[in-house]
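Feature request, filed as a ticket because there's no other form

It would be nice if the structure record came with a short human-readable summary line next to the C-alpha cells. Right now we just get the raw output. Example of a typical job, pasted below so the devs can see what we mean:
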Amino acid sequence: MPREDNWLKEVGTPDEWMKRAQSNLVRARQPKPEEVFFEDLVFDIQQSVEKALKALLLKKGIRFRFVHDIAELLTLLEQNEVALPDEIRAAADLTDYAVQARYPGPFEPVSENEYTTALDIANAVLAWVTKQLLAEELTEEQDIPSHIKDLSERP
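Raw output as currently delivered:
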C-alpha cells in the first residue's frame, strides 16, 4: 500500500491507468478461440472499466481504495460532484466479473450475450472517461494565468 504522503505519486498517472484500461479492453475484443472462456473475457472487460474509473479519480485527486467494486468507484465520483450518465452507472453490474467469473464454482457460465453487453458498457465507460479526462486537461490549461502561458509558449 502506498505511503499516505506520496499516495498520488506512487499509484501511477491517469495516463498509465488509461493505457492499462485500454490494454484490457483490447484483449477482451480479440476473437475468442474455442479454448477461451467468456468468463476470462468479461474479467478483462471489468478490469478495463475499473482502471479507467481509477484514472479519472486520480486526475481529480480523489483517493480510492484498491478494490474491484465498480459501484464504490462510481459512488466516489458522485460524492465529488461528477455527474454520471445512466449508461455509466450500468457499469456497476460488471463488478461480479472481477471475482466470480475468474474461478470454477457454483456460478452460471457467462453467455455470449452477457459478454457483448459487458463489452458495450466498457466501450461507453472508456469513451466517457476519455472525454472527462480531456475536459479536465482543458480546465487545467484555463486555470494557468495568461502571463505564465505566454512564458511557456516562448521558444
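Something like this underneath would help us a lot:
The first helix runs from residue 7 to 10.
Residues 70 and 92 are 5 Å apart (CA to CA).
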